[in-house]
Amino acid sequence: MDGRQILNHAVDQHKETTAAAKRALRVVEQTKELQASTMGALQDQGQQIRRIGHGMDKIGTDLTYSQRILRYMRMCCCVGFFCSSCTEPDRENADNNWRSGGVPRPPPPPSHAAAAAAAGDGDKKAIKRPKKGGAGGAGAGAPPPQFAPVGTAGLAEAGYGEQAGVIQKETAKQDEYLDQIASGLDQLKHGAMAMRDEIHRQDHTVDRLHADAHVLHGRLTAVNREGFKI
């Protein structure tokens, strides 16, 4: 192979590198779409779990209220006659604290959003690529390592101006694709942290609902037992 053939082969390889970068960008975009749909499904699931929690709160409040009604009926009324003051007592704030011992609902676990955001800002600063021809700001630390630019001045002087133009054009495309890939990966990272926090909150809520179900089962058994005694 002579010099021109070698150069043409190098140009073809450079074009293939550009195509590979474009394919990688397409994969990143598809992953972002998949992540967005998954996050939407997670949020819908979280809303359903919260609705279940509100329903269990209503059940617990009603059971506590029912226990007070049965207690008043047993203490104050005669068989076959129930006065309205006994059968319909005013609801109390204590009815809302229906968990064992009147313990209020435990607070949710601390969110990692603030820490994740702080870490994300630091990562952004760390991976941000400086603009061409510029230098990093003073006090910002050592800039990230960069590859040496592709020089084509010698090719143009040697009579390979067409090949040099193609190489410059493909290099510009590669830089653009790589910048978009870096931005997309950064978005994927922050989206993954948001999904982690959402799953963590849902896990905590499900554990709490499981404990509440045991409490409600015990209270429902007690209400049934008291009702049969009247």
From TrEMBL:
Entry GO terms, CC: plasma membrane; SNARE complex
Keyword Translocase: no
Matching InterPro entries: NPSN/SNAP25-like_N_SNARE, T_SNARE_dom
GO molecular function, one term: SNAP receptor activity
Cellular localization per UniProt: Membrane
Region (Disordered) residue spans: 90-152
Classification via SUPFAM superfamilies: SNARE fusion complex
Keywords: Membrane, Protein transport, Transport
GO biological process: one example: protein transport
The protein's name: Qb+c-SNARE protein, SNAP25-family
Organism field: Monoraphidium neglectum
Higher taxonomy: Eukaryota, Viridiplantae, Chlorophyta, core chlorophytes, Chlorophyceae
